[in-house]
Design goal:
3 helices; single chain; Alpha-Beta Plaits; four-stranded antiparallel beta sheet
Amino acid sequence: MTKTALWVAHVDVTDADAYARYAALATGAIADHGGIFLARGGAVETLEGPVRPRNVVARFPSMQAAHDCYYSDAYQAALRHAEGAATRELSIIEEL
């Protein structure tokens, strides 16, 4: 049985307009790879590590789907809008 995977992103947005363009384009790319959002920019309490006020969690059908989404042409086009518009950490994590 293939395990699902999560994208977990911690973001500090520095250019809201550019980042909004990224988010709009990324939404479609993520959906095209079977991703669904579980959390997206809601309330957060940082207990350890750097404060990143925007946090996003998306579930994908597999590690491969999450990986393929990140490297897809559509996501890479979206990502260009995030460059210089935010400080981010993004990981893919296999679910139990």
